[in-house]
Fold these 2 entries.
Entry 1:
Amino acid sequence: MNEFVYNGQASRVVFGVGSLGYLEREIELLSARRALVLSTPEQKAQAQMVADRLGSKAAGVFPKAAMHVPIETAREARDEARRLGADCAVAIGGGSTTGLGKAIAMESGLPILAIPTTYAGSEMTPIYGITEDGLKKTGKDLRVLPRTVIYDPELSVGLPVGLSITSGMNAIAHAAEGLYAQDGNPIMSLMAEEGIRALARALPAIRRRSDDIDARSDALYGAWLCGTVLGNVGMALHHKLCHTLGGSFGLPHAEVHTVVLPQAIRFNADAVPEAMERIERGLGTEGGISAAAGLFDLARMNGAPVSLRDIGMKASDLDRATEIAVSKPYWNPREVDVRARAAIRQLLQDAFEGTRPP
Ligand SMILES: NC(=O)C1=CN([C@@H]2O[C@H](COP(=O)(O)OP(=O)(O)OC[C@H]3O[C@@H](n4cnc5c(N)ncnc54)[C@H](OP(=O)(O)O)[C@@H]3O)[C@@H](O)[C@H]2O)C=CC1
Ligand SMILES: O=C(O)/C=C\C(=O)CC(=O)O
């Protein structure tokens, strides 16, 4: 076994159907007295339900979370938290809402209690992102790691099937890249393989019946594991491409992960055969279908997009996307520099057309 460093990150996870019922207890364990509840505008009713449950321990509801945390929203939320004397933020929703909680915590140190309803995994990471003047800045700060996470599968039943599949693929992407991370370790690899297994089992079942609570539980369990991997080890080419396509070309976050993942995994496959074996074991395709093709099939068979063309990319932007991706690459097991330009351009072409990897 290679040398490794494993850093446990302290967060408390309360998991299970109906676990929202433990909210008051969990707020008390944080020694909080006034929680500001955050959500997107569309999930305001759910946030209000949480605030009603907290009664006098709720400072108010701030239902203005938006994708990629615009700095103006972050400032407004910070002011509101201060004005209301909040000593804790409860974020109910997906990565956008958790991200807003992180923006508050970064400045004020308020503890976050996250209640995820998508599979993006932000609740398990110390990674924050804020967008200012059209540019998204990301970084790591342990203050933004939610102290408590309540995973209640009942709350994700309302997530539309299409979003459930792409969000699940977003989670799988964290695990897949965690399996070949430069700073990877055996514990994260165990979590990554098990996370892929849980999601590969859950997504087809959710497609068949969106209120299948066992499948929703499996998916949330997988999201927890995959998010933990994202929070503990570095990501590589796939995440760089997605951040480029999302950040510079405005493509939707979970969909872009879904489309790019099979192509990025194909690009890296020969450099990291052990990781490929683990992805295949997780997907249940070992000995038959490659990791890249297995991921492509998982998306396509469950009705998710598999081509950049279908999610709004213009063919004329592929060259510029290639330049951005190779100009400041993340570490990757197969080198990505200007000499790899032609191979990255081909990867993006395959993603654009939705070509099934061999
Ligand atoms: N820092 C980190 O570690 C990470 C950050 N992220 C960031 O998080 C964002 C992506 O997260 P993601 O979760 O995909 O995005 P969102 O939080 O924007 O949620 C995605 C979609 O899910 C819908 N949704 C969420 N909950 C429900 C629900 N209960 N019922 C119905 N619909 C629901 C939202 O609808 P509606 O808008 O109507 O509420 C939205 O359209 C990106 O900004 C990404 O960069 C992602 C992963 C990790
Ligand atoms: O961009 C961020 O907010 C931070 C990380 C991610 O979005 C991870 C991902 O690409 O899913």
Entry 2:
Amino acid sequence: MKINGVQYRSVRVDPEDNRTVLIFDQTRLPFSLDVLRLTECGQVAHAITSMQVRGAPLIGAVAAYGLALALRTDPDDVAMERDAAMLAATRPTAINLRWAIDRMLAKLRPLKPEDRVEAAYAEAALICDEDVAQNEAIGRHGLSLIESIAKDKKKTGTINILTHCNAGWIATVDWGTALAPIYMAHDMGYDVHVWVDETRPRNQGAALTAWELGSHGVPHTVIVDNAGGHLMQHGMVDLVIVGTDRVTAQGDVANKIGTYLKALAAKDNNVPFWVALPSTTIDWTVTDGVREIPIEERAASEVTHVAGQMEDGLIGRVRITPRDSAAANPAFDVTPARLVTGLITERGRCAASAAGLHALFPEQAT
Ligand SMILES: CSC[C@H]1O[C@H](OP(=O)(O)O)[C@H](O)[C@@H]1O
């Protein structure tokens, strides 16, 4: 996507040396656009766990480059397996991370150690290119959904879309998933407006989705997480589109905490609730998402404190809870398929069900 007219991907290799991995430090957005130069595997692991880089498809792509960096230090089998396991363990919920590491290992294990670095960078670059193409296709398949809503609306005027967390281009290599259809609809002249859930506790919506949409000129309004149901009750939401970190073979959806509650409100108000995802986010080995998907428990300090720009312009954190109050911080929840209107993938739209997914991915229908 473009920032101030300059085209960027969320992860890229420094053209100066074709080895250093460049990402944006997402903990500094929207106040500062800082590029991080990653030269060691450990730096990549830290960037993922600290959420300097986040978003299911993007952490997979960055971890792939992390393994390439690791091989520059030691390309032998033992080191490669150790570093791959370390990267895969950085965050448990997004299946893209495990998928990317497994794909890299499948490519690298058969090679001689001395051939692995070059091959790793090439495979990581392929993963990135495929993510961009998949997300652009998701955008097109989601665009037709927005177009059908525009036609069906009794009154002309704004199409109001609600989204949760950040599933934009900064959560992927480019385009995004949930936001891709919105960018395309906006660029085609549709009058779209986005209700942006702030998405406590880390405020990916308020800080990242609002920043992305504003940079692209898409009208949007930041709301507290608990406002969505009220807006739906009053007919102010035409469509909900969210991203996801893992979809089961039956269509259950793991996504940022709070998504399940949004889906319940959408069901109760007959608002279409769609989930956008590349097929790298589908976990074909899991059926019951609520029981089987591991939910990342993050630090309580993300709940007890909030980060933002202080009066002096510096980025800081303030405590918002009593010091002796405990805090819990499950980072994701699972929305059962029965609450999901449908899935938007790079191959098209389908019902959130085994049959729907097999219709688009027949090779997975055993
Ligand atoms: C395009 S996937 C985005 C997905 O990832 C986010 O999680 P996090 O910010 O913790 O990496 C969130 O669940 C988004 O929906």
